[in-house]
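Allow me, if you will, to draw on your knowledge of protein folds for a short while. The matter concerns a single protein, recorded as an amino acid sequence and a row of backbone structure tokens. Kindly check, if you would, that the fold set down in the tokens agrees with what the sequence suggests. You will find the record immediately after this paragraph.
***
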Amino acid sequence: MAGLRVNSGPYTARNHVVNVTLGALLSAGLLSLCCVNYLLFHVVAEIFIIVIAFSIFIITWNLKSVIDEKYFLLIGIAYFFVGVFEVVHTMAYQGMNVLPWLDANPATQLWIVARFLEAGSLLLAGFMIGRSLNYYLVFSSYGAVAALLGLAIAFGYFPACFVEGVGLTFFKKLTECVIVLVFLGAGGMLWRRREDLDPYLMRWLLVAIVVSMLGELAFCFHGSLYDVVNVIGHFLALISFYMIYRAVIQTALVDPHRTLFRNLKATEEALRKVNEAMERRIRESTEELREANAKLWEEISHSRQSQVETVQRYMHMARKAKMDAVARLTRTVASHFESVMKDVAERGEAILRDMDGGHPLRRHAEEIVKAGETTFSFARNLEAVGQAQDMSRKELELNGLISAMAEELSQISGDGVRVRIMAAEDLWKVKADPGQVERAILAIVRNARESMPSGGELTIETSNIVVDEKSGHEHPGLAPGSYVMMDISDTGMGMNEDVQSRLFEPFFTTKGHDGRGMGLAMAYGIIIQSGGHIHVISELGDGSVFSIYLPKA
């Protein structure tokens, strides 16, 4: 991700030098104009403010499908109407003679309305961080408010702000103070939501708000429309508009993927915390089970056989309870993860659609889409682990399914492994999803192949069994009934008891960084969701047998 940062390095340093130089030249030019003719200075300064306001709107409106944070879109709409009031304010300014029948009061009223609209919008935008936005409804609402304020000024309903020979009215000074407080509230809201915004953009916005507050304080104390305090106020307003413009440009044009990657990082951190919480709960549950098991051994009867059967049943129930807890947590993670990654892929595709073939960031956008699709597929596997898949269960001939998979099983096993299929005659049908059962078989076969790095033998055997009260101890975890059993055995390295106890936990792997720990967990989820059961018998150096039980149809 370091390669995607555009606000660092020599190129940006040169840009800063250019920006500072241009800013200094612009300030010197405006000061020169002010010394020669204040009215000309005011017109030029207002033109800059108007151009910046409309530019903010044009950029945000046309890139609304790309900008991830709708905060900036609401600001863009607000600055359109601020720009409209600035245009009328400039035309009505005393000395312009565009509207010669007006005195200095309407221009001051229009300025107050524009400032209040700006401050209120920045405060409102803080509440919209992370929320959806109906662009057209917001635009229409701003249009209605702007029309009402304009009519109030035109027909004399708006309180006077400037009186010839007296200066600023009490209402104007009070309103300026209120606007300062609204700006302060907007800054406080931004600071409160700072975890949801990029720090670089946060700095631009906060400094812009502080500069706006200083400008409004300056406008509280000017005595005429042409004094030094008025000049200072216009300079600060121009600087504030420029900073808002820079924040929008950085988000929409220079670095549009920055917010997306930041959201991805936040999602990754949230998933990490969920995973830590899941592991902690598993450890706590395991510790509780150890304590319960210790108490249980103290209460075992004199019959050794009865002791073994009781312990087996209890351990199976405990393991099932733990796996159920893991499945519930995994379902929550899978649902959130799938939703987020689907959104990432869609946003990446939206960025791609707006980029031409030679765009320097296109390759990164393509990587975003590819990563989103890969992780979305991973989330689908998590659904299997969490037993939350949509299954299409129907009557299934297990022998026929295995026979159809024979060639694929041989390819997975490789040349060094001999595959034997021992299909029972008159095998009962089961009711299951063929595609999901096939996924479970392939996951177990891949695990068996990896346990035989030097080759060996893989056997798949089917049979019909009936479990009753007497034979229940031979098949721990199975309720009485009729089942089709499928044994998948290998001559591999085998497993110790510790590995067997965690074999079906998601993310558990004995292969270090080379494994994801999802295959057997997914197989377990599929079999359990199909109403069946899976049991493993293994010893180190003596291979493993995975017994799958599916209820008779």
Q: What stands out?
A: Residues 260-385 form one domain. The chain has three domains: 38-255, 260-385, 394-551. The beta strands are 162-163, 167-168, 394-396, 417-422, 430-432, 456-467, 481-490, 533-538, 544-551. The chain has 16 helices and nine strands.
